[in-house]
Amino acid sequence: MSDAKQHSIFSGKAVSPSRLADAVSDAIAAALLDGKIQPGDALPPEGEIAREFGVSRPIAREALRQLTSAGLVTTQQGKVARARALSGEPMDRIYGYAVRASIKSLMEANEMRRVLETGIAGLAAERRDARGLSEMREALDRMERALGQAGAFTDADLTFHHGMAMATGNAMIRIQIEGLRSIHREVSEIFTARNARTQKDWQATVQRHRAIYDAIAGGDATLAGQAVRLHYEATDIASLEIAADTGKHGQ
């Protein structure tokens, strides 16, 4: 990459002497998020980045490490760093640790999802992005075919909620839902495998998802939000069943 091209991509605020690595990583991240660098594109080597910003190679290396930790860059020994598509993967790892701590953490996670997805469903009903609606329909079909099959049902469940985020047409919302994937999987797997799960209960879960889809596809934001709240009320009841089964009341 030429010096001129580097300048056009990374130029911006002057780098402050303090927190140099943060300033460099912020500038590169801005170029990634603004689309000046596309997913899969190679970043300049450490030495070129250091020269561009007027910092040392260790500072440039630390900036790339920060971007790698944030999931914006992928690096391999002996190869150039490459840009990655923005996703919720870093958040997903953190939430995954948190939700496994206790039943209390599980219920708090479910509460967080209810708050978020009520608003997401409303926006999805207003926007109705075709890709998201298609993903939701596909997930419903898969759920119908997966009744009684915990793993396949959980995968379809995750796809449905991702589709709902996609239906908003908002990339930040899509990333947020991807960041909650570990929570969603943990909740879904535990609820699906609980002792009280019956065939009627499986079918009721599908119907709750279908009600959400119908409201979104019909463009009714109020009804979509209500359908999500009803769905999470049911999962809250299931949380109490799990607590009774495991003896982890309030833990």
What is the fold's blueprint, element by element?
Blueprint lengths: L2 H8 L9 H14 L12 H8 L3 H13 L3 E2 L7 E2 L5 H11 L3 H25 L2 H16 L4 H17 L4 H9 L1 H13 L5 H19 L3 H26 L5
Antiparallel strand pairs: 1-2
Helix pairs in contact: 2-4, 3-4, 5-9, 5-10, 6-10, 6-11, 6-12, 7-8, 7-11, 8-9, 8-10, 11-12
Keywords: DNA-binding, Transcription, Transcription regulation
InterPro entries: GntR_C (IPR011711), TF_FadR/GntR_C (IPR008920), Tscrpt_reg_HTH_GntR (IPR000524), WH-like_DNA-bd_sf (IPR036388), WH_DNA-bd_sf (IPR036390)
Protein name: GntR family transcriptional regulator
Written account of the structure:
Keywords: DNA-binding, Transcription, Transcription regulation. This is GntR family transcriptional regulator. 71% of the residues lie in helices and 2% in strands. It is mainly alpha-helical. Strand 1 and strand 2 form a beta hairpin. Helix 3 (46-53) packs across helix 4, helix 5 packs parallel to helix 9 and helix 5 (89-99) crosses helix 10 (181-193). The termini are far apart.
